[in-house]
Amino acid sequence: MTAVLPSASRARPAPSARRMLPYAGMAVVVLYCLVPFYWMVVSAFRRPEDQFDNAALPSPWSIKNFTAVFKPDVGFQRALLNSLVVAGVTTVITLLVGTLTAYALARLDFRFKNAVLGLIIATSMFPGISLIIPLLKLFSDIKWINTYQAMIVPTLSFALPLAVWNLTAFFRQMPAELEQAAMVDGCTRGQAFRKIIVPLAAPGVFTTAIITFIAAWNEFIIALSMVNKKEMQTATVSISKFTGAYGFDQPFGTQMAAGVIVTVPLVIVVLIFQRRIVAGLTAGGVK
Amino acid sequence: MSTTIAGPPAARGRRRGDVRGSGRLAGMLLSPTVIVLALVVGYPVIAAFRESLYQRGEGLDANGFVVQGDKFVGLRNYTDIFTGPNSGAFWNAFGNTTFFTVVTVVLETVLGVTMALVMHRAFRGRGFVRASILVPWAIPTVVSGLLWRWVFQADGIANAMIGRQVLWTTEGFHAKVAVIIADTWKTAPFVGLLVLAGLQVIPREVHEAARVDGAGAWQGFWRITLPMVKPVLLVAVLFRLLDVLRMFDLPVVLVGLHKDSVETLTMIAYNEATNLRYGPAAAYATILFLYVAAVAYAFVKLLGADIIGDMRQKRTPRPAPPKKKRLTVPAEVAA
Predict the structure, then answer these.
(1) I want to staple A10 with a disulfide (CB 3.0 to 4.6 A). Which of A5, A63, B80, B249 is the partner?
(2) What are the Cα distances from residue B327, in Å, to B206, B316, B332?
(3) Which of B34, B37, B149, B306 is the best mutation test for A, with the most CBs of A within 10 A?
(4) Rounded Cα gap, residues B119 and B193, in angstroms
(5) Domain boundaries, chain B
(6) Closest-CA residue in chain B for A100?
(7) Domains in chain A: how many in total?
(8) In Å, how far is B138's CA from the nearest CA of chain A?
(9) For residue range A140-150, what is the model confidence (pLDDT) as tens digits?
(10) Would you say domain B87-311 falls under CATH 3.10.280.10?
């Protein structure tokens, strides 16, 4: 029985090497994901004068780029605040509206349900520009340019379907027996929803809030189109428009520092809640 | 026939909710979302189509003042785009968009599946890998565009590593390459994440059975793994396709507006809109919309990408909801 097995792949190499292989692969994946991010962080911490240094670590470390980001004439604090307002309000509206809809989609049987599901998912795929052009014209007419609502309303077009999708998946995971039991005990459907479902769904709603917030925070083309005043720019637009102190030089150091400021809070949140976020992101596709 | 089955199964089924009032309650709960989407998506899409049939009145009146008001021009905006003096710009943008879509989606699918397989094989450290995979996803596209612009700088790290002086972010094929690399970096891990979730629901026994039957690793991948993750993969690929087709942020930040090498359909429409040529802009946007719709339709109809998946309403609720396949209800119940 020591005969060589038919398939070449079954002839195992040294067991240790074979066991190490997946880890080597994982290391490649991790490096692939993190090295460019690492490069951004390192570049942000260099002194502006050795910005073009390609050493793996800054020497000496410096926070000059960060102080440059927050110089008053850049207006980056205001941009961060604008982003916070737009993404925050979008998230709140989305959750208020989306939770109800997701509950109906997950729990109730009604006609046209598949059509509604298909419609909601389809709207999230519409190219943003085909919404922006008529809205830009409309908002110019009603003097909404350079306002928060001009950014929030179009952002709903992709945030709401995304949230409904995630929440529906979460609601579906909860056993229907819970609310049925509550209803047997005399709750109305509304009470069952408020007292049983909402508290239980809190983790799912929270995850959806994170995903929606990140999507809205990262939005660019709407904020770029709807605003032409510097004070109303969101962080992403502001970063893309940083101008260098030295004429035509693109201020990469400052931009990297701003990129770190915009990204690191997201990355931290993502790392803390990664398990939930992955569950949320993969909710629609699998199961 | 429908009358014979309406009674008993409906009363027996409805496991998920009560029958009476469900429709109205559903209507109440759904209406906010439907209204919002009708306002922020439905109205603009229709308005864009209407807009695309108009052109801005550009003439001066007798006193030399600019005449306000739009003028109905029928399909002229479209014919101008396809065959007019600027049709070159459109076909260039159309070509770029298609090229980016095909190349990045192929790359992202191959890389994503590879990553998922790698992660699936490892038992420890999966959490760490998963966390790092979320980093490119969480970075705003604009920031990743700047990051790669920095990497691809004339005296940046990319050129230092390949030891050549390529001006990546100037016009030319290398600019396309830069965009493709940057996009692939950001989104391949995301595809990997989705595929990994698909891999994890494949029962172990299936692989073991295949191995017992003498299937090699390669055969196992093509005959077992791939067909079983196909539903997830199709959805992931569809999402990516539709996302790349509307690409804007990345080329704008990485290379810039008004650059022929990387100009996409969204960019060209945006340019027109910012020059207040709403009619042509809307026409470009409508063409892109139809392009996206055609791709999505083809994907769903021809390849059977099932986006709704398990959320689909089951016609005959059964004690244990089965995967996918729906019962052929009427015949069975009527019998």
Answers:
(1) A5
(2) 25, 7, 8
(3) B37
(4) 9
(5) 87-311
(6) B29
(7) 2
(8) 6
(9) 999 999 999 99
(10) no
Question: Is the pLDDT reported for residue B17 higher than 50?
Answer: no
Same domain for A177 and A220: yes
The rounded distance, in Å, linking the Cα atoms of B135 and A41 is 13
Establish if B246 touches chain A: CB-CB under 8 angstroms: yes
Mutate to test the interface with B, among A114, A117, A126 (most CBs of B within 10 A): A126
Residue A205 in any domain: the answer is yes
Looking at residue A213, what is its pLDDT?
94
For residue range A34-70, what is the model confidence (pLDDT) as tens digits?
999 999 999 999 888 777 777 888 888 888 889 888 8
B96-134 burial, b for 16+ CB within 10 Å, e for fewer?
Answer: bbbebbebbbebbbebbbbbbbbbbebeeeeeebbbbbb
Tens of pLDDT along A230-258?
899 999 999 988 865 544 567 888 899 99
Range(s) of the domain holding residue A89: 73-281
Q: Which of A62, A82, A98 is the last residue of a domain?
A: A62
Confirm whether A287 is domain-assigned: no
User: Is A100 touching B (CB cutoff 8 A)?
Assistant: yes
The interface predicted TM-score (ipTM) is: 0.86
* 8 A C-beta contact, residue A190 and residue B24: no
The pTM for the full model equals: 0.85
To test the contact with chain A by mutation, choose from B22, B134, B211 the residue with the greatest count of A C-beta atoms within 10 A, namely B134
Let me know if residue A8 belongs to a domain.
no
Question: pLDDT for B229-242, tens place per residue?
Answer: 888 898 889 889 99
User: Which residue in chain A has the smallest CA separation from B141?
Assistant: A218
Cα–Cα distance measured from residue A47 to residue A58, given in angstroms and rounded to the nearest whole number: 8
Residues A52 and A170 in one domain: no
Residues of B in contact with A284 (CB under 8 A): 235, 307, 309, 311
